[in-house]
Write a structure and sequence with these properties.
This protein is an alpha+beta fold and about 475 residues long. About 20% of the residues lie in helices and about 35% in strands. A seven-stranded mixed β-sheet has the order 1-4-3-2-5-6-7.
């Protein structure tokens, strides 16, 4: 059980008593490993009553620039540090968190966790915590991202707004860079510390009459890998080409989903990759009560889904919040479900395994070699979709989902784009859609909360249920 005690007034820097972690000149804008260790030593001194105390510390610096209607609206830098303290006594445990690091706040969090323990079941025979772990070492740090300061972001923003303004179009965009550290500490020696950076850019361009809209975006660890000018040009082109759309009848169509739309639809299937839920409840990966679909075909044989901290295009911090390491995993291979995630408790009690299989929610989907232009040229009648918005799961056991197309939807006839059409609401399941794969493109990084690399995919019989007012 995890709960948080959080100061809702976001301080510029979370404190560690009378001195800030960042007061020293030329100090980093995030917590160093030494900062985390000193904080943990204070937590151990404040803990009483036996048992074991562990901590997970997240530190983040964020720099951002946002504009709308071709004018900057917000810009700034924020720092946020959070500690989650876990107290375990006779196998019963509870976790509380805070972003205030003075002794009084830390003591309050520890005492709150100990009160919760009284309502949890003790397990005198609970297994000992795992020994010191070893971790993979992905390259996640980028000086280009960390050095994109407020002046640099402002300069970048001016260059990105100008092309839309020059064509009397309206641009709204967001540039953000982060420096993130995760640290896990245990008195028996299981500790981990890893720094990483993240950069993202997304932009929407609309015409003054509101009849055309284009969007493009991506995120990477390295700002140098983001061609912001090309992204802006893509959004601008989509805005111009989507103007004055016409309405067509909803129904089932052959659909070319651009990579962002593929992720928007498939991400719910990634989040649902959990073995405990599949075997104890009913999810899309449940075959029958108590049995998952591991070993069975669930998607087109063209689709393989993997995750790997060392993936050069979508690597991630190599351990979860409790310090357990992530490892390379194949979740789906040629359409067959190969693995589901599980925590250490379920591994020990139900599976007879000593280690967990965590789900980092980052993923890579296999692809093909067909370009979007080639997909269009081989389509007799269908639709081209830029992205999906407001996607919600309606039914967990089938992952039936709904949402709307956004920022560019076009009708294809006889291998050519005929004209832009009005947005529509879809009602379909990713498990159905990606069982009807016709063609796949090269996988590419998309705009996502967790690193994701997916291809454009052409599918048949994708269901649109009604017209939508979205632009």
């Amino acid at each position: 059980m995890t709960r948080y005690l959080t100061d809702t007034r976001r301080a510029r820097v979370s404190g560690r008593g009378p001195r800030s972690l960042f007061e020293e000149q030329n100090s980093p804008r995030y917590m160093s490993k030494e900062d985390c260790q000193r904080l943990f030593e204070r937590v151990l001194k404040l803990s009483a009553g036996g048992g074991t105390t562990t901590a997970s510390i997240d530190s983040r610096w964020t720099g951002n620039l946002r504009w709308a209607r071709n004018k900057v609206t917000t810009a700034g830098d924020t720092r946020d540090n959070t500690i989650r303290i876990t107290r375990e006594i006779n196998g019963a445990q509870a976790t509380m968190g805070t972003n205030k690091f003075d002794d009084a706040s830390l003591k309050l969090v520890i005492e709150a966790a100990e009160r919760i323990i009284m309502y949890n079941s003790e397990r005198p025979d609970a297994p000992l915590p795992p020994p010191r772990q070893t971790y993979l070492q992905p390259k996640l740090w980028s000086d280009a991202s960390y050095n994109l300061d407020s002046h640099s972001r402002s300069t970048v923003g001016q260059g990105l707004v100008r092309p839309a303004a020059d064509q009397q179009l309206v641009s709204a965009g967001y540039v953000q860079t982060d420096a993130i550290t995760r640290c896990n500490l245990h008195p028996r020696g299981m500790d981990a510390y890893y720094p990483s950076t993240r950069a993202e850019y997304s932009v929407t361009v609309r015409n003054p009459t509101g009849t055309g809209s284009g969007w493009a975006g991506v995120d990477y660890n390295d700002w140098a890998k983001i061609d912001a000018a090309a992204i802006s040009a893509k959004a601008l082109r989509k805005c111009v080409e989507s103007a004055d759309p016409r309405a067509i009848e909803p129904g089932r169509y052959t659909v070319i989903l651009e990579p962002q739309a593929v992720h928007d639809l498939f991400v719910s299937a990634i989040y649902a990759l959990d073995r405990r839920s599949a075997e104890m409840f009913t999810t899309v990966y449940t075959l029958r009560p108590g049995q998952s679909k591991i070993g069975l075909k669930i998607l087109s044989e063209d689709i393989t889904v993997t995750t790997d901290p060392m993936d050069p295009e979508c690597g991630y911090i190599p351990f979860e919040e409790n310090g357990m390491p992530y490892k390379a995993t194949t979740w789906i291979e040629k359409g067959i479900l190969k693995e589901l995630a599980y925590d250490r408790g379920y591994a020990l009690s139900q599976l007879g395994y000593g280690a967990p299989q965590p789900n980092p929610r980052a993923y890579r989907m296999s692809g093909g070699t067909t370009s979007i232009d080639e997909m269009i040229a081989t389509t007799e009648r269908g639709l081209l979709v830029t992205r999906l918005s407001g996607t919600n799961v309606l039914d967990g056991p089938s992952l039936l989902s709904t949402g709307t197309t956004r920022d560019g939807l076009w009708l294809i006839e006889r291998g050519k784009i005929k004209y832009p059409i009005k947005n529509m609401r879809f009602t379909d399941s990713p498990m159905f859609a990606f069982s009807n794969v016709l063609q796949m493109g090269l996988p590419t990084r998309v705009f996502a909360y967790y690193p994701s690399v997916v291809p454009a995919i052409k599918v048949r019989d994708f269901n649109f249920s009604m017209l939508a007012d979205a632009v």
